[in-house]
TrEMBL record, chain A:
Keywords: Cell membrane, Membrane, Transmembrane, Transmembrane helix, Transport. The keyword Electron transport does not apply. The keyword Membrane applies. This is Carbohydrate ABC transporter permease. Belongs to the binding-protein-dependent transport system permease family. The chain crosses the membrane at residues 12-31, 64-90, 102-125, 137-157, 178-203, 235-257. It is found in: Cell membrane. Residues 68-257 form the ABC transmembrane type-1 domain. Pfam families: BPD_transp_1.
Automatic annotation (TrEMBL), chain B:
This is ABC transporter ATP-binding protein. Gene3D superfamilies: 2.40.50.100, Nucleic acid-binding proteins, P-loop containing nucleotide triphosphate hydrolases. It comes from Cytobacillus stercorigallinarum. SUPFAM superfamilies: MOP-like, P-loop containing nucleoside triphosphate hydrolases. SMART domains: AAA. PROSITE patterns: ABC_TRANSPORTER_1 (PS00211), ABC_TRANSPORTER_2 (PS50893). GO terms for molecular function: ATP binding. It holds the Pfam family ABC_tran. Residues 4-234 form the ABC transporter domain. Keywords: ATP-binding, Cell membrane, Membrane, Nucleotide-binding, Translocase, Transport.
From TrEMBL, chain C:
Belongs to the binding-protein-dependent transport system permease family. It comes from Cytobacillus stercorigallinarum. Residues 92-308 form the ABC transmembrane type-1 domain. This is Sugar ABC transporter permease. Its main location: membrane. Keywords: Cell membrane, Membrane, Transmembrane, Transmembrane helix, Transport.
Length: 271, 355, 320
């Protein structure tokens, strides 16, 4: 009995240490954003005289609202397109046997191996040629189909009972009908989880948006933040305020759908 | 109004040939059974008749209409799946209604049709439940109702009772037989269970390895098996097979009797063996004996007595089935006579069989 | 009576024409799978495979990406120049450093943590999981900004604390020091991965049948022995999965931190191969050099991936 207890204490100690390590930087970001100019350079763990000053400065320095809006448009669009293309592709892969299926599947899986840095130059040239630079569409288009999403959807479709699809065919349902009225309602939570992961990834994306947008007004929030970090002004309070703002949507989603998100990351792996 | 005809159907998956030229002609209104061991191709054949799979070659007719390549929905068939395949996210009512809705049958008519069928399968009080809340037997009924509501030319059933427990299965068998009589529609029923086939079917098609082994009424199949496979597949315990040279001699356990039973008045042959085990089933018993020809099962009336260790088994000539090297039935009376005479001689030498 | 007959005949005619249109529809059905796959294939073709081929071609050309100019074929020049560039050699060393250095964070520590905390009940476990996960969902820029502030040379919490505790007496410029910079980037990347990996290993561990451990305990196996003979072999699919992920993605994970915190410096001491590609392309406007590096490393990573795939097939034990 005693031994079991000591193991449990050790377990919790380890877990609490890990948790502190995981969330402390986030905590430090938030309290720094509320510290005033004199306090910011001290190591106090709770702001003595909390202030909104840093936030006001951050809003004055960058078009934060516009950038958040850009991020939102880009992330939403990207998520919808990735879900749409992967639902259609996943359906085709489980529903039919056709010539070249293995080849297509292999080609889809192999894109996993192509790092973005290996295709960024030709893509950058192409986006500029078709004039989609400085445009949310230019950010979204190269990511409109995601191998990660396709393979995840394919995995969950594969475990869907084929007899249900057969039954729907006998009922006279069309293929799109089977996909959206029979399969989707039954794997809704999986698709929602995948959608959340895709949204978070899209929100956090920064290399490609940085190449496509030069003007702050057209850029997602990550780009604004990056230039703020690199601007070398000693405005750490404001920087932390801007960083906090950029995290809020993600943290809100996480707060409400935490279990969903963790489960689906465990299921789908990482991108 | 629902005959099913299959002509020279072949099907391959890649290199593997699953069906090797199947011909079937199921008359309208019959309760037909596709029977065979798992992997024999029976489900594939059923799926092709349903339109869920395309044959590699050959044609399929329903009501003399060539429907080989038409869509499942255009075939006027109802299907019941092994795992019921009910839509988990819809209520019982919606499950049954779904096909009609897609057919764009107008609402009042639709409701009427669905309610009538729900009443027929006695699920009225469960109409608003989801499949997950129902028992196995109830789900089975929903699956039936979903097929019935379309008033199809024919019903296709893919091992629909295999997920039920033994008692419920017996009950559902009776219900299906009654349902078929009531609807007067062709049923094509796939199973691997020979007892199910014999008790329900009016026409049985036995398949093995992508070939049809025999077609006929249960009586024909039981009393007059066309080949060794059918003889062994139908009946429990399976037909005893005594090998003799190039031939196999089959006698059903129920056509043999222990000599001391006194039921062997007409016996033409007697075989000596030692009883290894006895299984009392109540009304009857199964005895297992070792003989010079191998292990033999005998099914007879229960005497509730442990038979003598050394026993004699009697059987008559009319019950002897002879098969050639390929497993085909030998019907040449002279050849059978000769064979048995020869066996008798050789047995005499072993002093085991006495005429 | 004749009326009925006529209806039957016209019904039959209708069915015959239906039959014909069905035959026609059948050829359309053959196209359906491709139709459903078209958006995905088209997009991946245009934005992944085509540019990958362009990169292979660009590797043998010289081009500054200036609109109106054309690439000039230069043969193997780019590859030769790559190996004469000091930063490139640095970047290879560092890529190996990051790839190996990440393994304790993605495999060893998480696996031990998962084993140590196995058997914790549902609710408490979920709370910990929720916290472990946070680094994973934060944007690289966010993480970069926070760490830059934590390790600020004059006023960062780390320097303040070190001095307060008397461990150091001067400010340390972590990100401009060739020794600290790459270790810090490694730690940041590890910090982002460690919680996630622990959760993955925990999930894999709860799927292992308890019977194995009980059987082993009855056989008198010690905890340590159980770890070596049961836990690790049964976790082998997860270990190989995380190994593959670490090797293929660690350079991409570190990319963001390198860009935000050190820009590869000082003196190329913290750069990695992907960051060099980015630098050659968008800082030096040398598309050829960048593409040569990309081509080279695409091949290297492809070989590693194939090897790991074979390894997974050969060595992963599955619990049925």
């Amino acid at each position: 009995m005693k031994r079991i207890k000591s193991i449990t204490v050790l377990q919790h100690f380890l877990l609490i240490m890990m948790s502190i390590i995981a969330i402390f930087p986030l905590y430090w970001m938030i309290i720094s954003s509320f510290k005033n100019e004199s306090e910011i350079f001290t190591s106090s763990f709770i702001p003595q005289a909390p202030t909104w000053q840093n936030y006001l400065y951050a809003f004055a320095e960058m078009p934060i609202i516009q950038m958040l809006f850009n991020s939102f448009v880009v992330a939403t669009l990207m998520t919808i397109l990735q879900l749409a293309t992967s639902l259609l592709a996943g359906y085709a892969l489980v529903r039919w046997n056709f010539k070249g299926k293995l080849l297509i599947f292999t080609l889809l899986s192999l894109t996993w191996l192509i790092p973005f840095q290996a295709v960024m130059i030709p893509n950058y040239v192409l986006i500029n040629q078709i004039g989609l630079n400085e445009n949310p569409l230019g950010i979204v288009l190269p990511f409109a189909a995601s191998t990660f999403a396709i393979l995840s959807i394919y995995q969950s479709f594969k475990s869907f009972p084929t007899a249900l699809i057969d039954a729907a065919r006998l009922d006279g349902e069309s293929d799109l009908g089977i996909l959206f009225r029979i399969i989707l309602p039954n794997i809704r939570s999986t698709v929602v989880s995948l959608g959340i992961i895709l949204f978070i990834n899209a929100w956090n994306e920064y290399l490609w948006p940085m190449l496509v947008t030069k003007e702050m007004e057209n850029a997602p929030i990550q780009i604004g933040l990056k230039s703020f970090v690199n601007s070398d002004v000693n405005m750490w309070g404001s920087l932390m305020a801007a960083t906090t703002i950029s995290c809020i949507p993600i943290l809100l989603i996480y707060l409400f759908l935490q279990k969903h998100i963790v489960d689906s990351f465990v299921r789908f792996g990482i991108k | 109004m629902g005959s099913i005809k299959v002509e020279q159907i072949k099907k391959s998956f890649g290199q593997k040939e699953i069906l090797k030229g199947i011909d079937v002609d199921i008359p309208d209104g019959s309760f037909a059974i596709l029977l065979g061991p798992s992997g024999c191709g029976k489900s594939t054949l059923l799926r092709m008749i349903a339109g869920l799979e395309e044959p590699t070659s050959g044609s399929i007719f329903i009501n003399d209409q060539d429907i080989t390549y038409s869509e499942p929905k255009d075939r006027d068939i109802g299907m019941v799946f092994q795992n019921y395949a009910l839509y988990p996210h819809m209520t019982v009512f919606k499950n049954i209604e779904y096909g009609l809705k897609i057919k764009k049958i107008d609402k009042s008519k639709r409701l009427n049709m669905v309610n009538k069928v729900i009443e027929m399968v006695e699920l009225t009080e469960h109409a608003n439940k989801r499949p997950g809340e129902l028992s196995g037997g109830q789900r089975q009924r929903v699956a039936l109702a979903r097929a019935i509501v379309k008033r199809p030319h024919a019903f296709l059933m893919d091992e629909p009772l295999s997920n039920l427990d033994a008692k419920l299965r017996n009950q559902m068998r009776q219900e299906l037989i009654e349902l078929q009589k009531e609807l007067q529609t062709t049923f094509l029923y796939v199973t691997h269970d020979q007892i199910e086939a014999m008790s329900m079917g009016s026409y049985i098609i036995i398949m093995n390895n992508g070939h049809i082994m025999q077609k006929g009424t249960p009586k024909e199949i039981y009393t007059n098996p066309a080949n060794l496979f059918v003889a062994q597949f139908i009946g429990s315990p399976p037909t005893n097979i005594l090998s003799y040279g190039d031939y196999s001699i089959g006698i059903r356990p129920e056509n043999m009797s222990m000599k001391e039973d006194g039921h062997n008045v007409n016996a033409d042959y007697i075989l000596t063996g030692a009883v290894v085990s006895t299984e009392h089933l109540g009304g009857e018993s199964i005895y297992c004996l070792t003989t010079d020809w191998g292990k033999v099962f005998v099914k007879g009336e229960s005497t509730w007595q442990t038979p003598n260790k050394e026993s004699q088994i009697a059987f008559s000539k009319k019950d002897v089935l002879v098969f050639d090297k390929k497993g085909e039935r030998v019907r040449d009376v002279d050849l059978i006579e000769n064979l048995l005479a020869e066996m008798q001689v050789s047995n005499h030498r072993r002093e085991a069989v006495v005429l | 009576m004749s009326e009925v007959k006529r209806i039957i005949v016209s019904e039959q005619e209708k069915k015959v024409t239906e039959q014909k249109s069905r035959r026609a529809a059948r050829s359309l059905i053959k196209w359906k799978p491709y139709l459903f796959l078209l958006p995905a294939i088209l997009l991946l073709g245009v934005w992944m495979y085509k540019p990958l081929l362009s990169t292979f071609v660009l590797a043998f050309q010289k081009w500054s990406m200036v609109p109106g100019t054309e690439p000039i074929t230069v043969g193997l020049d780019n590859f030769i120049r790559l190996f004469q560039t000091k930063d490139f050699i640095h970047s290879i060393e560092n890529t190996i450093f990051y790839t190996i250095g990440i393994l304790p964070f993605s495999i060893i520590i998480p696996m031990l943590l998962a084993v140590a905390t196995n058997g914790l009940n549902g609710r408490v476990k979920n709370v910990y999981r929720a916290m472990f996960f946070i680094p994973m969902i934060l944007a690289p820029v966010t993480v970069g900004a926070i760490w830059r502030w934590l390790f600020h040379p004059a006023n960062g919490l780390v320097n303040l604390t070190l001095q307060k505790l008397g461990i150091t007496d001067g400010n340390i410029s972590f990100f401009t020091d060739p020794v600290y910079a790459k270790w810090l980037i490694l730690f940041m990347t590890g910090w982002g991965l460690i919680g996630f990996s622990t959760i993955i290993f925990s999930a894999a561990l709860t799927n292992i049948n308890r019977d194995y451990f009980e059987a082993a305990a009855l056989d008198g196996a010690t905890k340590w022995k159980q770890l070596l003979t049961i836990t690790i072999p049964l976790l082998s699919p997860t270990i190989l999965f995380m190994l593959t992920m670490s090797i293929l993605f660690s350079s991409q994970f570190t990319f963001a931190y390198i860009d935000i915190l050190t820009a590869g410096g000082p003196f190329g001491s913290s750069t990695n191969i992907y960051y060099e590609m980015y630098k050659y392309g968008f800082n030096n406007l040398n598309a050829g050099l960048s593409s040569a590096a990309a081509t080279l490393f695409f091949i290297v990573f492809a070989i590693i991936a194939i090897g790991l795939n074979l390894l997974t097939k050969k060595f992963a034990f599955y619990d049925n």
